[in-house]
Every structure is written in C-alpha cells, then in structure tokens.
Amino acid sequence: MKKINFKLLIVFFIGVIAMSAILIFSSYAKYYFLNSNRILYKLHDLQRLDNQLNYEVLSNSMYLYYNNDVISSTIHEIRKNIHQTEKIPFFRSHYPEAYREFMVFRDKFAQKENMIFEFLRFGFPLKNSLIYLTNSLNLMHLDKKSAQDILKILSNIFLAKNAIDTDFIKNINIKSVSYLKDSKDPFQRAFYKNLQIFLQYFPIFKKYLNEILNFPTGKILNKTNSLFMKRVTKDLQLFDILSWILAFFIAFLIFSISFAIIKLENYIKKLSHVLTHDILTGLANRYKFNQDVENKRNIAVTVFNIDKFKNINDYFGSQVGDKVLKKVAQSLKIFFEKYDIEVYRVGADDFAVIFEKWNEKDIVLIVKDAIESIEKQKIIINDTPFSISISAGIANMPPYLENADIALKKIKKNITEKIGIFDPSMNTEIKSNIEKTKEIQEALEENEIYPYFQPIFDRNGNVIKHEVLCRVKIGNEIRSIYPYLALLKEIRQYHKVTELILTHSYNLLEENSSVNLSINLSLEDIMNPNTYALIEKYFSNSDIGSRVTFEILESEISNYEIINDFIEKFKKYNLSFAIDDFGSGYSNFHRVLKMEVQYLKIDGSLIKEVDKDETSKSIVESIVMLAKKSGKKTVAEFVHSEEVYKMCKNIGVDCFQGFYLGAPSAHFY
Fold it and tell me: Beta strand pairing status for 390-395 and 419-421?
C-alpha cells in the first residue's frame, strides 16, 4: 500500500511539474507568437506601403492633376509604422539581426523621403509649364507655319511626358521658336519661358523618378523579412523539441486514458472537418456556409471570383490551377482574419464571406481593400508569375449566394468595375438575357447569321477592301450581333458565329478574285483549336491570303505571345494584320508598335471628335507619326462627317471608314 501511495505521490509530483511546464510553455508561446505576428504584420504592411508609395509617385509623374496629399499621407503612415515597429522591445531583443537591418531601412527611407520631396518640388513648375503650354495655343496669335512648329513641339513634349523618355525632347529644336522670346505678344513670351522651364526641369524630374522607383528600401525590407523568418524557423524547431518533451510527460501520466480519448476526438474532428471544409484549400465549404447563413440575421454575403480562371486551367493545367486557388484562398483567409470573418469556398473559383451588422459603405470599402490586397501579391508557381484579377458580388437579401452571383456576373460584363451590388432589377435583366439567349440559339439553328460589308477607302477615294461585319436575323428584323456576343460566350457558342463568318468570307473570296476582305478575330477565336484549324484550312492558300486582313481588337489582347505566334505562323501565307481600336489603351503603344502588323485602326472615340477636340487631334497626329516611323498604315474609323474626313486626311491618315463614306451593306460597294 505504501509503495502504491509512494508511486501515486511521484506521479502526482511529475504531473504538477508537467502541468507547470505546460502552463509556462503555453504562456511563452502565446507571448512569442503574438509579438512575432505583430512584427511580421508590420513588416508586410511596410512592404505594401512602400510599393504603394512607389505607385503613387509613378501616378504623380503620369497625371498633370494629382493630389499630393495621398503621397504625404502614405509617407506619414510609413513613418508611423516604422516608429511603432522599432519600439517593440521583443523585436530588438529577440531578432537582433533583423532589427539592425530594419534600422538600415529606417535610415534609407529618410533618404527616399527627401528624394520624393525634391521630386515633387521639381514636378510643380514642370506641370504648370505643361499646362500653360497646352492652353497657350488658344491665346497666341500665330501664322500657320508657326502653329505647325509649336504643335510639333507640343507633340514631342506630351510623348516625353507620357513615356517619361528624354529622347523625345531631343527632337525639340527650341531655336526654331526663339523669336517668341522677344515677341511683343506676352503670351508668346510666356510660351517660350514655359518651354524653357519644361526642357530644363524634365531631365531632373525623370532622374528623381528613376532614383525613387529603384531605391533599395524594398530590397532591405525583403532582407529584414528573410532574417526574421530565418530566426522564426529556428525558434519553431526549438518549440517543436519542447513540445515533444512535454508530450512525453503527458503521455507518461495519462497514456492509457488519453490514447482512447485522443483517437476518438481525432476521428470526430476528421469527420467534422471533411463534412464542413474544402479538401483542396482547407477553407470552410458550401455546406458550412449554408449552415452559418441560416443561423445569422441582418447579414450581407460577398462572393469573390478569380477573373478568367478557366484560362489558367486551360493553359497550364489543373495542377497549377489548384495551386493558384490555394494561394488565393490563403490570401483571403489572412486578410479577413483581422475582421474575425471566416472565408468559404463555395464553387470552383468562388469564395464567399458573411458580413454581420455592417453597412453597405463599410462592406464595399473592405471588399475593395481585399481585392487590392490580393491583386498586389506576386504569385509564382513553377517559376511562372501569375497576375491575378478578382471581382466581387454583394447581396444583402436572400437567396444570398444566388443574388451575389447575379451581381458578380453583371459586373463581369463591365471591365471598368470590380464590385457589383445586387439590385432586384437585375432579375429583369436575367429574364431579358434568357430571351436573348433563346433568340440567338434559334438564329444559329436556322443558320440566320449573315455577313455585312463596310468599305474602306484610300486617300484617293478608292475602295481598297471591305470589313466583314456580322448581322443576325431575329424574327423579320436584321440586327447587329454585338448585343449577343457576351451571351454567346457564356453559352459557348461564340466560335460558331466566327466559323460561319469565316466560311462566308472564304466562299466570297473563292468566287470573286477582286474581293479584298478585312475579318475580325478575337483572342478567343485564335485560342479555339477548331477555329484555328479552320483559319489554316481556308487561308493557307497564298492567293486568297493576300486578299485578307485579320483585325484584332487591342483591348482584347491579354497575351501578346499568343498573338505574335499567330501572326508569325500566318504571315507566310501573305495575310495582313491590323490592330483594331488602337489608341484606346496608351500603355500598349510600345508593344503594339513592335508587332508585325500592317494596319493600325485608330480608336473611333478619337476620330469622332478630331475636328473639334485638340487633344484628340494631337493624339491622332502622334499615332500617325509613330505608325509611319514603324512602317504601318493607319485607318480612321467612325468617319461620320466631311469635316472629320478632311481633318484625318490633312493629318496624314492613310485609309478611311465610316458612315459618311459608306454604311454597312449586304452587298459590296
């Protein structure tokens, strides 16, 4: 009996020691992870803010009117974060190497801050001079020759400003307008003075911009993070060892009982987890979402969707797609943890969150912040970088998920918006879409898809080719196919329309050797294997190919490599290529001009106002100039009046198309 009591006493003391160790370990582990997560969050936030500051500085350089308070507030927020982070005692004591590197970042940021203030100081007079130079044309009295010289100067100035490229200002001969310096006209003298200011300040402005964007604060923060995570890894190994030691003590005391309990609990947890969580991402699944929605009141549901995720699966395979899903899922989970909100995977690439007792304005701000947070992240899988775009739908009335999905689908049709909010009127639109879907399906079944032709003229007024436009017969009415395109893509019938138009066009080219056609192709057409094969079948004949131009819409070019490969393959058949709506996306100028295309069809929004709007005129002049230097011809679309036609002709546009010259018709001109 005494031996048993003695053993029990020993077990009791060992248990006390083990429990004390557990409490101490638990307390320290909590202290450690809370402080480490706090430091890590601060470092990541500083990385985000540093990237945001670079973005805002770059935005400042691009726009004439820019609120510099945004830059100041970002700098203030970075200062505040630096001060808060360096005052964390645990950072200084436990991560000395990372802390020293962080101090380097603090000092370097102070230098960067001074450079930004210098950048802004030179930016004010530069932008003011640019504004005056732009407005001065309406104030100065100039003859035609002087006006042309000044327009050339302004064109080079705007090219230099938009491209941040000093090579353009090298083309400016200030001596050609030196007479303005002593002119009696005060506006001419002011023009000359502001021109000097721009030429003097722009190289300095560019120098500071390059130095700011290439300043090593981001690299230093990355090194700080690396040193921090290196120490964390070592600490985790130590925690792992201590955990095993404590586990041994606990197993020694309660092995016989705990084994059965733990086994049973693990089994229950696994069953519960499988039932309520997604296997791939580890997030709560749709089943749990439905349960939680039923148990909550006064809620709003947001559904996040990865834009064009199907393309990732198609191009790179489902394994890469799964890794992208896991990355996005983890990013959403981390983002919403600070709001204590759970993230659910409710579809293939759909994720949902439930907001309780939030107003609409707050929800939109949080959702916007979540989208920006994910889109800023660099996702690299198998050495391939992925740029992820996210859209979201919000609904505050049941059925929540279905209504949020309706709002999401609606917003997907508008490339300028990222967030859609459900409105009951959207159901009316759904009914309309159902009716339109029925109409277009019946038209396809009855083969009621027809080509129409709009002539394209050269500078001498001769028809050089016809653009093939698509029309559909609905009932007894001939309509444009445009309102049905999005629906065709949704029901996966878009390729049928393209193939019908290609077949009509091929037959016309076969029947009439004098016909020259311009045919529209989308990136989706080029990527569709059946459509691609049909193009090769019809137009690999060099005689027919020499009479065909394929028009590719600039705004749809999301993958230049695919387009360039397509052009490279088919140019040997004497096919010509055109970029449609050129000028609608200025960021693509450089890449488009390097493509092996023969025509640039200038965006109609520029052409429609070219006779009235000086900015449109200047842009068109620049496009024509760049096109000529690149050996490409230009086509003006939407030529709707004699004034527009004459203006485009004077600017130097090569070809013309529009209702003033010829409307689309079922017959050739």
Answer: parallel
* Residues lower than pLDDT 70 in the chain: 1-19, 21, 25, 249, 252-265, 267-268, 415, 429-430, 584-588
8 Å CB contact between 606 and 554: no
Threshold 0.85, pTM exceeds? no
Task: In whole angstroms, give the CA distance from residue 523 to residue 341.
Answer: 39
- Find where tokens 């003391």 sit: 13
Residue of 314, 269, 435, 296 lying closest to 352 (CA atoms): 296
407 Cβ partners below 8 Å, 6+ apart?
Answer: 393, 394, 395, 420, 421, 422, 423, 426
What values do phi and psi take at 592, rounded to 5? -70, -40
Separation between Cα atoms, residue 641 and residue 219, nearest integer Å: 56
Q: Cβ contacts of residue 501 below 8 Å, gap of 6+?
A: 449, 451, 468, 470, 519
- Residues contacting residue 576 through CB under 8 Å, at least 6 positions apart: 548, 549, 550, 597, 598, 599
pLDDT at 154: 79
Tokens standing for residue 567: 């052009």
> What pLDDT score does 14 carry?
63
As a whole number of angstroms, the distance between CA 322 and CA 278 comes to 12
Q: What is the pLDDT of residue 534?
A: 93
Can you list the alpha helix ranges (DSSP code H) found in 338-418?
A: 360-376, 400-412
Of 399, 405, 393, 490, the closest CA to residue 441 belongs to 490
Q: Which amino acid is at 145?
A: K
Which residues have a Cβ under 8 Å from the Cβ of 2 and sit 6 or more positions away? none
Do the two domains 286-424 and 433-656 of this chain adopt the same fold? no
CATH architecture observed for domain 433-656: Alpha-Beta Barrel (3.20)
Helix and strand element counts for the chain (H, E): 23, 16
Domain 286-424 is found in CATH 3.90.1170.40:
no
Cβ–Cβ < 8 Å for 451, 439: no
**384 three-class SS:** strand
What is the residue extent of each domain of the chain?
A: 2-118+217-237, 121-213, 286-424, 433-656
Quote the CA–CA distance of 601 and 582 in Å, as a whole number.
6
Sign of CA dihedral 511, 507, 555, 378: negative
Amino acid 587: pLDDT:
45
